Amino acid sequence: MVETGIIAVTEQKASDELVSRLKTCVSRAETGSLTLFKQAGWIAVPLESSYHLSDPQKTLLTAAIGRFCTPEIWAVTLEELTGVPRAFKVRPDRHGLNAFDKACAHFNVALFAGAPDWVVVCTTDDYLVVGGQVEFVDAAVGGIAEAFERFRNFATDPRLSQGERDSLRRVLETLEHRFLGAAAGEAILV
After folding, report:
1. Structure confidence at residue 1 (pLDDT)
2. How far apart are the C-alpha atoms of 129 and 125, rounded to whole Å?
3. Which residues of 66-105 are buried (b: 16+ CB within 10 A; e: fewer)?
4. How much is the pLDDT for 51?
5. Which 8-state DSSP code applies to residue 179?
6. Which of 111, 93, 101 is nearest to 2 (CA)?
7. Which among 27, 62, 140, 161 has the fewest CB atoms less than 10 Å away?
8. CA distances (Å), origin 6, targets 39, 47, 165
9. Residue range 6-35: mean pLDDT, rounded
10. Per-residue pLDDT tens over the stretch 65-83
11. Under 8 Å between Cβ of 88 and 7
12. Helix locations, 36-85, DSSP H
Protein backbone atom coordinates (compact mmCIF):
# COMPACT_ATOMS: atom_id res chain seq x y z
CA MET A 1 0.00 0.00 0.00
CA VAL A 2 2.88 2.39 0.61
CA GLU A 3 3.69 2.41 -3.09
CA THR A 4 0.18 2.52 -4.54
CA GLY A 5 -1.81 4.39 -1.90
CA ILE A 6 -4.72 1.92 -2.15
CA ILE A 7 -5.05 -1.80 -1.57
CA ALA A 8 -8.03 -4.11 -2.03
CA VAL A 9 -9.51 -5.73 1.06
CA THR A 10 -9.54 -9.34 -0.10
CA GLU A 11 -10.64 -11.13 3.06
CA GLN A 12 -14.43 -11.59 2.76
CA LYS A 13 -15.13 -11.17 6.49
CA ALA A 14 -13.21 -7.88 6.65
CA SER A 15 -14.88 -6.60 3.48
CA ASP A 16 -18.34 -7.54 4.79
CA GLU A 17 -17.61 -5.76 8.08
CA LEU A 18 -16.67 -2.56 6.23
CA VAL A 19 -19.83 -2.75 4.11
CA SER A 20 -21.86 -3.23 7.29
CA ARG A 21 -20.22 -0.21 8.97
CA LEU A 22 -20.90 1.96 5.94
CA LYS A 23 -24.56 0.91 5.79
CA THR A 24 -25.13 2.62 9.15
CA CYS A 25 -24.90 5.96 7.33
CA VAL A 26 -25.37 5.39 3.57
CA SER A 27 -26.86 2.91 1.13
CA ARG A 28 -27.65 2.84 -2.56
CA ALA A 29 -30.59 0.86 -3.92
CA GLU A 30 -30.46 -1.17 -7.13
CA THR A 31 -32.58 1.59 -8.67
CA GLY A 32 -29.68 3.99 -8.05
CA SER A 33 -31.36 5.98 -5.28
CA LEU A 34 -29.07 7.13 -2.49
CA THR A 35 -30.18 7.04 1.15
CA LEU A 36 -28.32 8.76 3.97
CA PHE A 37 -29.01 7.80 7.58
CA LYS A 38 -28.69 10.83 9.84
CA GLN A 39 -26.07 10.41 12.56
CA ALA A 40 -26.19 12.48 15.76
CA GLY A 41 -24.55 15.86 15.19
CA TRP A 42 -23.92 15.26 11.49
CA ILE A 43 -24.35 17.62 8.59
CA ALA A 44 -24.14 16.62 4.92
CA VAL A 45 -22.95 18.98 2.18
CA PRO A 46 -23.03 18.42 -1.60
CA LEU A 47 -20.09 19.21 -3.87
CA GLU A 48 -19.81 19.31 -7.65
CA SER A 49 -17.91 16.37 -9.07
CA SER A 50 -17.02 14.99 -12.45
CA TYR A 51 -14.67 12.11 -11.63
CA HIS A 52 -14.94 12.14 -7.86
CA LEU A 53 -12.38 14.35 -6.12
CA SER A 54 -10.95 17.42 -7.83
CA ASP A 55 -7.48 18.66 -6.87
CA PRO A 56 -8.86 21.45 -4.62
CA GLN A 57 -11.23 18.94 -2.98
CA LYS A 58 -8.31 16.55 -2.36
CA THR A 59 -6.32 19.39 -0.79
CA LEU A 60 -9.16 20.28 1.60
CA LEU A 61 -9.96 16.66 2.45
CA THR A 62 -6.29 15.84 3.06
CA ALA A 63 -6.02 18.82 5.42
CA ALA A 64 -9.19 17.76 7.27
CA ILE A 65 -7.92 14.18 7.55
CA GLY A 66 -4.65 15.46 9.04
CA ARG A 67 -6.37 17.91 11.36
CA PHE A 68 -8.70 15.25 12.74
CA CYS A 69 -5.94 12.60 13.01
CA THR A 70 -7.57 10.02 10.78
CA PRO A 71 -5.20 6.99 10.86
CA GLU A 72 -6.89 4.98 8.11
CA ILE A 73 -9.48 5.46 5.41
CA TRP A 74 -11.69 2.87 3.78
CA ALA A 75 -13.45 2.94 0.42
CA VAL A 76 -16.48 0.75 -0.19
CA THR A 77 -18.37 0.47 -3.46
CA LEU A 78 -22.06 1.23 -3.07
CA GLU A 79 -23.02 -1.73 -5.22
CA GLU A 80 -21.45 -5.07 -6.01
CA LEU A 81 -19.49 -4.90 -9.27
CA THR A 82 -18.19 -7.88 -11.21
CA GLY A 83 -14.40 -8.04 -11.07
CA VAL A 84 -14.09 -5.08 -8.68
CA PRO A 85 -13.23 -5.52 -4.98
CA ARG A 86 -16.00 -4.34 -2.68
CA ALA A 87 -13.63 -2.58 -0.25
CA PHE A 88 -10.24 -0.88 -0.24
CA LYS A 89 -7.85 0.51 2.34
CA VAL A 90 -6.77 3.99 1.26
CA ARG A 91 -3.69 5.77 2.55
CA PRO A 92 -4.89 8.88 4.48
CA ASP A 93 -2.98 11.41 2.40
CA ARG A 94 -2.94 13.04 -1.03
CA HIS A 95 -1.16 10.04 -2.58
CA GLY A 96 -3.89 7.75 -1.28
CA LEU A 97 -6.68 10.02 -2.56
CA ASN A 98 -5.03 10.15 -5.99
CA ALA A 99 -4.82 6.35 -6.05
CA PHE A 100 -8.45 6.13 -4.91
CA ASP A 101 -9.56 8.38 -7.76
CA LYS A 102 -7.60 6.36 -10.29
CA ALA A 103 -9.04 3.04 -9.06
CA CYS A 104 -12.62 4.11 -8.30
CA ALA A 105 -13.51 7.16 -10.43
CA HIS A 106 -16.14 5.32 -12.46
CA PHE A 107 -18.01 3.75 -9.53
CA ASN A 108 -20.44 4.85 -6.85
CA VAL A 109 -18.25 4.54 -3.79
CA ALA A 110 -17.89 6.00 -0.31
CA LEU A 111 -14.75 6.95 1.56
CA PHE A 112 -14.98 6.82 5.33
CA ALA A 113 -13.05 6.50 8.55
CA GLY A 114 -13.94 5.05 11.90
CA ALA A 115 -17.40 3.85 12.82
CA PRO A 116 -17.86 5.89 10.37
CA ASP A 117 -16.78 9.19 11.88
CA TRP A 118 -17.24 10.89 8.50
CA VAL A 119 -18.10 9.86 4.95
CA VAL A 120 -17.53 11.17 1.43
CA VAL A 121 -20.09 9.66 -0.93
CA CYS A 122 -18.80 9.76 -4.50
CA THR A 123 -21.51 9.28 -7.11
CA THR A 124 -21.46 8.90 -10.86
CA ASP A 125 -24.18 11.58 -10.95
CA ASP A 126 -21.79 14.57 -10.93
CA TYR A 127 -21.90 15.24 -7.20
CA LEU A 128 -20.31 14.19 -3.91
CA VAL A 129 -21.76 14.31 -0.42
CA VAL A 130 -19.48 15.02 2.54
CA GLY A 131 -21.08 14.01 5.83
CA GLY A 132 -19.89 14.14 9.40
CA GLN A 133 -19.56 16.39 12.42
CA VAL A 134 -19.76 20.09 11.55
CA GLU A 135 -16.07 20.78 12.28
CA PHE A 136 -14.83 18.02 9.98
CA VAL A 137 -17.24 18.83 7.15
CA ASP A 138 -16.44 22.55 7.36
CA ALA A 139 -12.72 21.80 7.00
CA ALA A 140 -13.26 19.19 4.27
CA VAL A 141 -15.43 21.43 2.05
CA GLY A 142 -13.77 24.80 2.63
CA GLY A 143 -16.68 26.31 4.55
CA ILE A 144 -20.19 24.90 4.77
CA ALA A 145 -22.12 28.00 3.64
CA GLU A 146 -19.68 28.55 0.78
CA ALA A 147 -19.96 24.91 -0.33
CA PHE A 148 -23.76 25.08 -0.39
CA GLU A 149 -23.56 28.29 -2.44
CA ARG A 150 -21.09 26.75 -4.92
CA PHE A 151 -23.38 23.75 -5.34
CA ARG A 152 -26.41 26.04 -5.76
CA ASN A 153 -24.57 27.80 -8.60
CA PHE A 154 -23.70 24.43 -10.16
CA ALA A 155 -27.28 23.16 -9.82
CA THR A 156 -28.64 26.19 -11.68
CA ASP A 157 -26.01 26.30 -14.44
CA PRO A 158 -27.90 26.91 -17.72
CA ARG A 159 -25.39 24.72 -19.58
CA LEU A 160 -26.88 21.69 -17.84
CA SER A 161 -30.07 20.10 -19.10
CA GLN A 162 -33.29 20.89 -17.25
CA GLY A 163 -33.37 17.31 -15.95
CA GLU A 164 -29.83 17.58 -14.58
CA ARG A 165 -30.62 20.91 -12.91
CA ASP A 166 -33.80 19.51 -11.36
CA SER A 167 -31.94 16.47 -10.03
CA LEU A 168 -29.10 18.54 -8.57
CA ARG A 169 -31.53 21.03 -6.99
CA ARG A 170 -33.32 18.10 -5.29
CA VAL A 171 -29.98 16.97 -3.86
CA LEU A 172 -29.28 20.51 -2.65
CA GLU A 173 -32.69 21.00 -1.06
CA THR A 174 -32.64 17.57 0.57
CA LEU A 175 -29.23 18.10 2.18
CA GLU A 176 -29.71 21.76 3.04
CA HIS A 177 -33.13 21.33 4.62
CA ARG A 178 -34.34 17.75 5.21
CA PHE A 179 -31.04 16.21 6.32
CA LEU A 180 -30.14 19.15 8.50
CA GLY A 181 -33.46 18.97 10.38
CA ALA A 182 -33.66 15.17 10.55
CA ALA A 183 -33.51 13.21 13.78
CA ALA A 184 -30.61 10.83 14.42
CA GLY A 185 -31.29 7.51 12.70
CA GLU A 186 -33.76 8.97 10.19
CA ALA A 187 -33.38 7.73 6.60
CA ILE A 188 -33.18 10.53 4.04
CA LEU A 189 -33.61 9.73 0.36
CA VAL A 190 -31.27 12.03 -1.59
Report:
1. 42
2. 11
3. eebebeebbbbbbeeeeeebbbbbbbbbbbbbbbbbebbe
4. 73
5. I
6. 93
7. 161
8. 27, 23, 34
9. 94
10. 999 878 899 999 999 999 9
11. yes
12. 55-67
pLDDT exceeds cutoff 70 at 3 = no
Give the Å distances, CA to CA, from 149 to 3, 5, 188.
38, 32, 21
Which amino acid, one-letter code, is at 31? T
Residue of 72, 98, 75, 95 lying closest to 86 (CA atoms): 75
How distant is the alpha carbon of residue 180 from its chain centre? 17
User: What are the tens digits of pLDDT across the range 97-129?
Assistant: 999 999 998 999 999 999 899 999 999 999 999
- Ramachandran angles phi, psi of 110, nearest 5°: -125, 135
CA distance linking residue 163 with residue 166, whole number of Å = 5
CA angle at residue 174 from 177 to 157, to 5 degrees? 110
Contact 104, 88 (CB under 8 A): yes
**Where are the domains positioned within the chain?**
6-114+135-189
Cα–Cα distance for residue pair 85/60, rounded to 1 Å: 27
Please give the single-letter amino acid code of residue 37.
Answer: F
